[in-house]
Amino acid sequence: MKNMSTTELEQTLQTDASIQLIDVRETDEYAGGHIEQAKNVPLSELTERTAELDASQPLHVICLSGGRSMNASMYLEQAGFDVTNVDGGMMSWEGNVTR
Fold this sequence. Notes:
By secondary structure, the protein is of the alpha/beta class.
């Protein structure tokens, strides 16, 4: 599994806004502020919602601080996804957020 910083994620989003980014925080956390391009798939629902994700495209995973996204990334990698975990999560994100 690969890792990237939030700075690297922000740079990637500036060059390719179509990347597949999931935010695995719970719905109320996501509603409090998230990256515009991020799709909310809470870690607690991930196993039931994996089919919503495109396994043919690289997948970036973020959470609040990096713990839940690491767990999600390990699960998704075992499921055959090309996964990048975003280190530091939303606590390290300095870009714009959508509410």
